[in-house]
Specification:
alpha+beta, Sulfite Oxidase, Chain A, domain 2, 273 residues, four-stranded antiparallel β-sheet
Length: 273
């Protein structure tokens, strides 16, 4: 057989082979469940979801998606859930936010290998699985709660139990600004940053050791950086999103900074007693 004909035959064979499906692992503590792309796309509860202002694509998008809570059978409202992406991002969310949603609804968008999604900024890909929200403003869903390149979902004990070095002084009153800032930190920062060397994420630097950003940036610059990272350091390849007032109110930003200033006096270095 002539070489050109052999190449054409091999090319036709490759086209005829099914595209390799991706897998998502969900472990809620009673045995891991693995979902494949074709299984999810064929589910009877899969539907087309319209997202008018997608956080990652910065435009309207349409997805084939499954209600996320339908995949979390066995989870409890008091559980914490860790969403692990293949690029190192790890977002922790309370299960109640998904199971007992009031207005906003979480969906697992599933990329069809035959019809891949476009690239997002920096030629990154969002697939194969992506958590998207309808009506995110109803529950003030922040950008860190839209994990893409999703590979696994795991049930966790509360962050304070797993990572004691991120917990503020136990003597603080429950309603103190610092304790409220600790909750804001877990929601907005812990998906990308560690603190005192503790945490699951590996995208951003540690926010307390060797120095807290409250120690080397004056407050006005730190506030501007959190609102719009490019306003302080022009770096098109940077991965940190800005947090506008819809995602992070001025009061919540005050509380976050109170927590970070407090923790700058409670440093714990990884590997040291």
């Amino acid at each position: 057989m002539p070489a050109l004909l052999r190449r054409l035959c091999l090319f036709a064979l490759c086209l005829a082979l099914p595209l390799r499906a991706a897998e998502l692992t969900i472990d809620l503590g009673h045995g891991a469940q693995v979902y494949r792309t074709e299984q999810l796309l064929a589910r009877p509860d899969a539907r087309t979801v319209n997202v008018p202002d997608d956080v990652s694509f910065k435009r309207a998008m349409h997805y084939r998606a499954v209600p996320l809570k339908a995949l979390l059978q066995g989870a409890h409202a008091e559980d914490a859930l860790l969403f692990v992406a293949s690029d190192g991002f790890a977002a922790e969310m309370p299960a109640a936010q998904i199971l007992q949603a009031h207005g906003s609804e979480a969906w697992l968008a599933v990329e069809d290998p035959a019809h891949p999604w476009p690239s997002i900024a920096g030629n990154k890909v969002a697939g194969p699985f992506y958590v998207v929200w309808t009506d995110p403003q109803a529950m003030r869903i922040g950008p860190e709660q839209w994990p893409f390149q999703l590979a696994a979902i795991r049930r966790l004990a509360p962050a304070a139990e797993r990572f004691p070095a991120i917990v503020p002084d136990p003597a603080l009153k429950p309603d103190s600004a610092i304790r409220r800032g600790f909750a804001v930190f877990q929601r907005t920062c812990f998906a990308c940053h560690t603190l005192n060397g503790q945490g699951e994420a590996r995208l951003g630097p540690d926010l307390n050791v060797p120095h807290s950003p409250t120690e080397y940036l004056r407050e006005s610059l730190l506030r501007a950086y959190i609102r719009d990272p490019q306003s302080l350091r022009l770096w098109p390849q940077a991965r940190m999103p800005g947090f506008d007032r819809q995602a992070l109110s001025d009061a919540e930003l005050d509380e976050l900074l109170a927590y970070l200033r407090h923790m700058s006096g409670r440093k714990a270095y990884p590997g040291r007693p």
